[in-house]
Design brief:
Elements (H helix, E strand, L loop, with lengths): L7 H6 L3 H17 L4 E5 L2 E6 L2 E7 L7 E4 L24 E4 L2 E5 L6 H16 L3
Helix pairs in contact: 2-3
Protein name: YdhG-like domain-containing protein
Organism: Microbacterium lacus
InterPro entries: YdhG-like (IPR014922)
Length: about 130
Amino acid sequence: MPAAFATVDDYLASQTPERRTDIEALRSLVRAAEPELIEIVKWNSPSYTLRGVDRLTINAAGKGPVRLILHFGTGRAEDKSARPIFDGDPDGLLTWHSDLRASLVVPSARDLPHRRDAIIAVIRAWLTQT
């Protein structure tokens, strides 16, 4: 099945103004956390690779909140009943879906300035995981 979006700009153009604002906020946090990440479209969403490994994906599908998914792509088997392998979230920002996949909901525009540094720290810590 071909990708619905050829570029991140195509993806952004398909979003409502409110969702686009949340997506742009996450993109800014991701870039601040690690400038070497490469932004691509994968899984019909903005995704980020580091040294050739899929590590982050923005999920804005559906009507729920915009989320940043922290993962290791499809190259590693995950165990949905196991404890997370990651301990770099001292503020409890992540929701865990398996031992190696979590999501982070973009904070409201009012809360984002207060959580910015903590979110960037979590992303940086996640990207050090191998």
